């Protein structure tokens, strides 16, 4: 596939106030973004994801490494390179609040060199797609948070750049608006084949929209794989085991110690252990633990998991690409 962005060995460290000590936020991060794909760029708080995003957008210069966008080095040919990417950044004001909805679309398109006439048709289309047509003459500061976010994304799309970066596109939105925005983005992705980078803690957004995910943890890339592969991988590892009786305290402690991503649920009706096995032989260790006190097993089923569970297990379990190979059970 054709690469639109190439990131090679970027690093970033910040100096602590009043000391000479440095905090390494990003360490030797490398990845590619292919033209026409939707990439999820994920990571827990403090993992280095935000610094990586800012370097991609030219807002922060790396201490080492290189970033090229459409073949242009972002540090040597900054303005030319940034013509190929537009972004909606969380925590930034991406709109002019004293302009109307349509005026914002026209103003930011003008900054990219497009005349009002040139963008008129596409602006109308975007207003319809984002359900903003009846608000086009209203000032932005009078809109709801959800409408402002939809407009900010429409502005980014109207720039017609090769890459669109959406940082937490559904943050702070209520469930209904978040669902609406996911549907809108899903239609745009399928119809227009845009290259989009999405950073989000809203895992349904990632699961529904992204082809591939890169997960950064402790400043390093730990996973770079397709969403479908990761879901398939964890489906082969996640099991729900129904027991005929409760575990003893000793068994429970051993279970949670040996399998830290497991859960134990006991009630008057049933006892369920949900466990994620990292290696094929782990199943035998689990059965040995149950056999110690003659615990009866009534049923074993594989668990259908979603991407939020995948993400949490990767981050908490310290998984890397080298470890992400399916097991045989």
TrEMBL record:
CDD domains the record matches: ABC_DR_subfamily_A
Domain ABC transporter: 5-243
Pfam families membership: ABC_tran (PF00005)
Keywords: ATP-binding, Nucleotide-binding, Transport
Keyword ATP-binding tagged: yes
Gene3D superfamilies in the record: P-loop containing nucleotide triphosphate hydrolases (3.40.50.300)
GO MF annotation, one: ATP binding
Keyword Nucleotide-binding: yes
Family from the record: Belongs to the ABC transporter superfamily.
Record-given protein name: ABC-2 type transport system ATP-binding protein
Organism name: Paenibacillus macquariensis
